[in-house]
Inverse folding.
């Protein structure tokens, strides 16, 4: 058996993504609700798994493991991929 | 939190180190003065950034230990094996030094004293740090909300914030997982479902539950609280990875 791609101890909560994402977003994403494009489930972004120890930041659905958000600042460029997010809702508009 | 506060752009700012004190054999408390600090809610964190002379930067997140009412900002940093940031912060940093930080960050894992209902806090290791802010906030606001804390650490010497765990309306249960001193009156094992059933607020009370600590600890506790009948929407978790376990 090879090492699983996502060892359980790497999982973090949305707080770990909040600082980096604040480089791009002027709103607090820790309070957002996200609909996963993989399984259509809608839940608080706080109930997704955050992986912050790779070259970029990755957020995955707890239900189907689909990647809903990737963010990186490598090479002096901000890159955001949210093709896995069908809808992002932020309270307080 | 007011919507206006949500739309504040976060910038890196300089904090002056007022003091560095020994919290446990491996943890230091950094007391910081931050000019024009925007104020924080109990439970929020900051990112700290270190820059080497060659421009290499490294940043880490640390929960704020001081309550919103404090005139300064306290962080408690645990030294990790091969932790390039924590090693510098716990070994090299001196009062008078400047530190780059941004925050406060995160409006999710916070306890506003105005929230209704009792509160159950469950901490593993340095996961107690955001709870020190919440308990301080509870005392400062003379809150009448019932708060219970279940705090798991390796040994008595590893307990963080021992002078800040009590107050009117606050009851604390300590459990040690590695060694107990003679005469120890707390619990002496890892947190399990039986312990959660006996030493935390019952689901019938609908407490707001906060769990903070290493990932494995938090996931075990959160699953245990769900199995006891707590509503998932009342359980807030903050996992901080594999390190600094209880």
């Amino acid at each position: 058996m090879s090492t699983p791609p996502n060892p359980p101890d790497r999982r973090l909560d949305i707080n770990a993504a909040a600082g980096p994402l604040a480089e791009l977003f002027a709103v607090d994403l820790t309070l957002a609700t996200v609909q996963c494009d993989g399984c259509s489930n809608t839940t608080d972004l706080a109930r997704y798994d955050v992986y912050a120890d790779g070259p970029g930041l990755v957020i995955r659905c707890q239900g189907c493991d689909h990647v809903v958000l990737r963010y990186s600042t490598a090479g002096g460029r901000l890159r955001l991929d949210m093709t896995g997010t069908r809808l992002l809702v932020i309270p307080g508009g | 939190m007011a919507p206006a506060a949500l739309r504040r752009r976060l910038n890196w700012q300089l904090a002056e180190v007022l003091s560095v004190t020994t919290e446990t054999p491996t943890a230091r408390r950094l007391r910081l003065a931050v000019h024009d600090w925007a104020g924080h809610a109990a439970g929020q964190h900051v990112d700290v950034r270190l820059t080497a002379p060659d421009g290499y930067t490294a940043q880490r997140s640390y929960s704020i230990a001081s309550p919103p009412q404090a005139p300064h900002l306290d962080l408690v940093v645990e030294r990790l094996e091969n932790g390039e940031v924590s090693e510098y912060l716990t070994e090299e940093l001196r009062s008078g030094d400047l530190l780059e930080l941004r925050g406060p960050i995160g409006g999710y894992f916070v306890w506003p004293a105005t929230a209704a209902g009792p509160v159950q806090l469950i901490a593993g290791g340095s996961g107690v740090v955001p709870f020190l802010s919440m308990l301080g906030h509870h005392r400062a606001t003379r809150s009448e909300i019932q708060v219970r804390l279940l705090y798991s650490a390796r040994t008595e010497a590893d307990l963080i914030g021992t002078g800040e765990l009590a107050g009117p309306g606050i009851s604390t249960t300590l459990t040690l997982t590695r060694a107990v001193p003679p005469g120890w009156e707390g619990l002496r094992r890892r947190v399990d479902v039986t312990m959660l059933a006996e030493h935390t607020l019952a689901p019938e009370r609908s407490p707001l539950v906060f769990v903070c600590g290493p990932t494995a600890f938090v996931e075990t506790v959160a699953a245990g609280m769900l199995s006891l009948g707590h509503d998932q929407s009342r359980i807030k978790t903050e996992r901080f990875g594999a390190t600094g376990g209880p």
